[in-house]
């Protein structure tokens, strides 16, 4: 069983390379690290089996897909409605991520929307109408400095 707290330098390099380009072939990684394709494949499978790597994904350019409004919402809810509101909002295709936060019973949510009218509709038809919503604070992104795809080593 892999020690989940300590990755050896080879596994760390494999993860860094896959983080930069998850489509990089095992052969190319092996070439860079001076290991065989089979050795890399076994290491990646081990990282997956031990749930270090959860999945391989892509990042879409939201603007090019017509989603030009990027907004973060702090949705304060009555504690007894937190689960229900969180589940309802997480099912919305505009919602990129949603987390329940400590402190006041609040949900921190990121959504990508087509335009200002879509933002207004999202607020009134998708958030304000939900039972238990007490307050919503909305902040729109004006500039992105970094967008993560998960933990980086």
Strand arrangement, largest sheet?
A: 2-3-1-4
Average pLDDT metric: 91
Question: What is the element string, with H for helices and E for strands?
Answer: HHHEHEEHE
Shape descriptor: elongated
Q: What is the correct CATH architecture of the largest domain?
A: 2-Layer Sandwich
Instruction: List unreliable stretches of 5+ residues.
Output: none
Largest sheet features: 4 strands, antiparallel
Relevant CATH superfamily of the largest domain: Lrp/AsnC effector binding domain/regulation of amino acid metabolism (RAM) domain
Q: Report, as a whole number of angstroms, the end-to-end distance.
A: 21 Å
* CATH class annotation of the largest domain: Alpha Beta
Number of helices: 5
CATH topology value of the largest domain: Alpha-Beta Plaits
Please report which band the strand proportion falls in: under 5%, 5-15%, 15-25%, 25-35%, 35-45% or over 45%: 15-25%
Keywords: DNA-binding, Transcription, Transcription regulation
InterPro entries: AsnC-type_HTH_dom, Dimeric_a/b-barrel, Tscrpt_reg_AsnC-like, Tscrpt_reg_AsnC/Lrp_C, WH-like_DNA-bd_sf, WH_DNA-bd_sf
Protein name: HTH asnC-type domain-containing protein
